[in-house]
Write a structure and sequence with these properties.
Helix 1 runs parallel beside helix 3. The chain is globular. It has a domain of 69 residues. It has a three-stranded parallel β-sheet, with no helix packed on it. It contains four helices and three strands.
């Protein structure tokens, strides 16, 4: 299940909404993990703004077990190499990696 966090875009229906706090985002991750213990939770869009580097790390340690890397449909994501380095640092295996990175 992809976990997207709002990235308010001007001119869209949610363009004037505020970002979720990183603490609320981490609580949301924990709630999803408790509610769906056997589901693969994937970080997706908006995590860069909502969680930043520290929150991304905390979310991986707290229940997220997959990461969608690179750019998204309408916004830029983190550099894929940064995510790969973080996963390696945390000792988390990389199941699939496209050769185009």
């Amino acid at each position: 299940m992809p976990l997207n966090f709002l990235n308010p875009r001007p001119g869209t229906p949610f363009g004037d909404q505020q970002l979720m706090s990183s603490q609320d985002a981490l609580r949301t991750i924990a709630a999803f993990r408790l509610a769906m213990p056997h589901t693969i939770l994937r970080y997706a869009g908006g995590r860069e703004l909502t969680l930043g580097d520290l929150g991304t790390r905390e979310g991986l340690l707290g229940g997220v077990n997959a990461v969608i890397v690179g750019n998204y449909l309408t916004t830029l994501g983190r550099d894929p190499h940064e995510d790969i380095e973080l996963l390696a640092e945390l000792g988390m295996p990389i199941k699939e990696l496209q050769k185009t990175l």
